[in-house]
């Protein structure tokens, strides 16, 4: 009888144990399903990310094109104008990336305005329509299909750079800008000063490697009133590319996997500063690839030589238009991609 009782209890315990295991598996599957929907990751993908590869990405002809739109945000004039427009084109067959800066002042016949206003007009029509319209206009200008987008809020991006401890940027050409606008003073009457000097500050950068905190880095990439060529949108586009490379180098140098607390803080700061239509899985897959790239596999290109400034009476303001047509620009870009 005692043996029977022990056997009965053992069987019951085994059944309970199996039920608990099955219940645990079901819960894990439920959590994993929700997690997969939100992030694009599953257990197999996590293993693949650790060992090699990652999730499947949207691509065309072995290329993944990511549009990066930077906006002033906050209390700046035109907070939803995309003052920074860059396409990062990733070659998935021969791991490399080409950074293409697109001047914000290019005229769009579709918009009847500059391309940097596309996001604003899209949002006016429908919430979420800004990124759709901005991407469509960018495809028209460059001839590249846009697979993913990232929008950066400059006012929040400062904090992200500061959390990194600043970045080391290679200033290829030094410059001085005596008319850098001071946030919040755009409409100040300056006590009747006809030159409205109180609205501006003077900023200066010397050539060479410069360590920049968040606010300094943003001044560097947003400056538009320097003398000579450094006052053009083309120079600003080059500086924006330089900052992206500096950020990449800093993240690699920090070896964040050894600093989980900092990594968590950076993740939350990035969530605030950056909005993207990529899942976490797609972001990690792309991030893993780009972080491994040597400097020789990163190319910066510009379409400056293919654009001209027409007489102001044609459009009533400063704009840029193709020397020939947009087809010529499309052909040039495809030839220059790594």
Structure description:
- The chain has 338 residues and is an alpha+beta fold.
- It folds into two domains: 2-39; 63-336, 3-Layer(aba) Sandwich (Aminopeptidase), CATH 3.40.630.190.
- Helix content is 45%, strand content 20%.
- It has a six-stranded mixed sheet. It has a two-stranded antiparallel ribbon with strand order 4-5. It has a two-stranded antiparallel sheet with strand order 7-10.
- The protein is globular and about 65 Å long.
In short:
It is built from 11 helices and 14 strands. By secondary structure, the protein is of the alpha+beta class.
Strand-helix topology:
Blueprint: H1 2-39, H2 43-51, E1 63-71, E2 84-91, E3 96-101, E4 107-108, E5 113-114, H3 118-125, H4 129-142, E6 148-153, H5 154-163, E7 167-171, E8 175-181, E9 200-205, E10 208-212, H6 214-222, H7 233-254, H8 260-273, E11 274-276, H9 280-291, E12 298-302, E13 307-308, H10 312-315, E14 321-322, H11 326-336
Parallel strand pairs: 1-6, 3-12
Antiparallel strand pairs: 1-2, 2-3, 4-5, 6-11, 7-10, 8-9, 13-14
Helix pairs in contact: 3-4, 5-6, 5-8, 6-7
């Amino acid at each position: 009888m005692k043996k029977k009782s022990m056997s009965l209890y053992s069987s019951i315990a085994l059944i309970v144990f199996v039920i608990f295991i099955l219940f645990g598996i079901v819960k894990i599957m439920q959590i994993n399903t929700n997690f997969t929907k939100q992030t694009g990751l599953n257990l197999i993908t996590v293993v693949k990310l650790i060992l090699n590869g990652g999730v499947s990405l949207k691509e065309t002809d072995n290329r993944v094109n990511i549009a990066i739109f930077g906006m002033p945000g906050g209390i700046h004039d035109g907070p939803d104008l995309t003052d920074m427009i860059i396409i990062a084109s990733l070659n998935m067959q021969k791991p490399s990336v080409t950074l293409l800066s697109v001047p914000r002042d290019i005229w769009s016949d579709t918009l009847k305005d500059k391309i940097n206003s596309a996001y604003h007009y899209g949002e006016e029509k429908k919430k979420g329509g800004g990124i759709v319209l901005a991407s469509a206009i960018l495809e028209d200008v460059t001839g590249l299909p846009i697979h993913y987008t990232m929008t950066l809020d400059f006012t929040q991006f400062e904090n992200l750079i500061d959390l990194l401890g600043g970045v080391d940027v290679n200033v290829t050409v030094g410059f001085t800008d005596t008319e850098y606008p001071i946030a919040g003073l755009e409409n100040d009457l300056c006590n009747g000063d006809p030159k409205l000097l109180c609205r501006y500050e003077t900023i200066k950068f010397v050539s060479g490697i410069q360590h920049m905190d968040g606010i300094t880095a943003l001044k560097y990439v947003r400056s538009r009133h320097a003398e000579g060529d450094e006052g053009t949108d083309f120079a600003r586009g080059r500086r924006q590319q330089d900052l992206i490379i500096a950020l990449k180098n800093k993240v690699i140098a920090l070896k964040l996997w050894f600093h989980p607390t900092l990594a968590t803080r950076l993740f939350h700061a990035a969530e605030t500063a950056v909005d993207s239509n990529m899942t976490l899985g797609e972001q990690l897959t792309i991030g893993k690839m780009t972080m491994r790239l040597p400097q020789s596999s990163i190319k910066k290109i510009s379409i400056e030589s293919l654009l001209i400034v027409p007489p102001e009476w044609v459009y009533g303001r400063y704009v840029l238009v193709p020397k020939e047509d947009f087809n010529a620009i499309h052909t040039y870009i495809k030839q220059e991609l790594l």
